[in-house]
Specification:
Helix content is about 35%, strand content about 15%. By secondary structure, it is of the alpha+beta class. The chain has a domain at about 5-40. A two-stranded antiparallel ribbon has the order 1-2. The chain has a two-stranded antiparallel ribbon with strand order 3-4. The model has no long low-confidence stretch (mean pLDDT about 80).
């Protein structure tokens, strides 16, 4: 582990750029404060090996399937407002459910 002098400013902790190429394409870092030291490192891998293994085995067993459909298109705020106005007419859904359940009670 390299020991360097970091500068603490109002914008955050500044470290020399010479440290970053060894970490690869890093957009964020973890900072841990210990007694007498501040440790700055690339973020820990968020992928849990057990989770990865379970998903891989479920895919192999045919229980999990990758669906290759495209993401839905974005909807503008104006279009959402128009839909809210159209779909917001009438009674609230909760009142409809309560009325429906009263018939069965």
């Amino acid at each position: 582990m390299a020991v360097v002098k970091a500068k603490i400013t109002a914008r955050g902790v500044l470290v020399p750029r010479s440290l970053l190429p060894a970490w690869g394409d890093v957009q964020e870092v973890e900072i841990e404060q210990r007694a007498g030291a501040i440790i700055i490192r690339p973020p820990a891998r968020r992928s849990d090996p057990l989770h990865t293994r379970i998903v891989r085995e479920m895919k192999a067993a045919g229980l999990v399937e990758e669906l290759g459909w495209p993401a839905p298109p974005g909807v503008s705020a104006e279009a959402r407002a128009c839909l809210a106005k159209k779909l917001g007419q009438g009674q609230p859904l909760s009142e409809l459910v309560i009325a429906d359940r009263e018939d069965r009670a």
